[in-house]
Design a protein that fits this description.
single chain; 143 residues; alpha+beta; 8-stranded antiparallel beta sheet; 1 helix; 8 strands; globular
């Protein structure tokens, strides 16, 4: 049989475990479906739609990825996170890229992440760019 002191210590330990686990669970956010975008100085950094539990029509353009590089739909997990990694992705003018995208919901209407595009073949020099984004919901999905 436990004495009173041992019972108090056991209860305190359980409470401590529960308090540590709570923030991890509370941090998971399910983002609201819709169209998300971020622009800086009237230049689109990123744009995509969130519909049917997937990030679709992910688009980014910069000095390395000047012509749309297609990223397949990415499933959004219960924790609000998504990712993609692919090699040999060809754009419309047959440049080949290695692409990495990862993101997560900060709130129901804000999604942040990182994208890396590396051109591995095609006209012009090879290049690599990494961009952080913070896209906000601008309206209904366009898909």
């Amino acid at each position: 049989m436990l004495n009173r002191g041992a019972a108090v210590l056991a209860a305190a330990a359980l409470l401590g475990v529960a308090l540590v686990a709570l923030p991890a669970t509370a941090a998971a956010v399910a983002p609201r479906g819709g169209h998300y975008a971020q622009s800086t100085n009237n230049i689109v950094v990123v744009t995509f739609d969130l519909a049917g539990g997937k990030v679709r029509r992910f688009w980014h353009s910069d000095d390395c990825a000047r012509y749309s590089v297609p990223v397949p739909p990415m499933r959004v997990g219960a924790d609000g996170a998504f990712s993609f990694k692919g090699t040999g992705i060809k754009n419309g003018i047959l440049h080949e890229y290695t692409v990495r995208v990862s993101g997560h919901a900060l709130s129901k209407t804000v999604i942040a992440g990182t994208m890396t595009y590396q051109k591995t073949s095609g006209n012009g020099p090879a290049c690599k760019t990494t961009t952080k984004f913070r896209a906000k919901r601008t309206g209904p999905a366009r898909t």
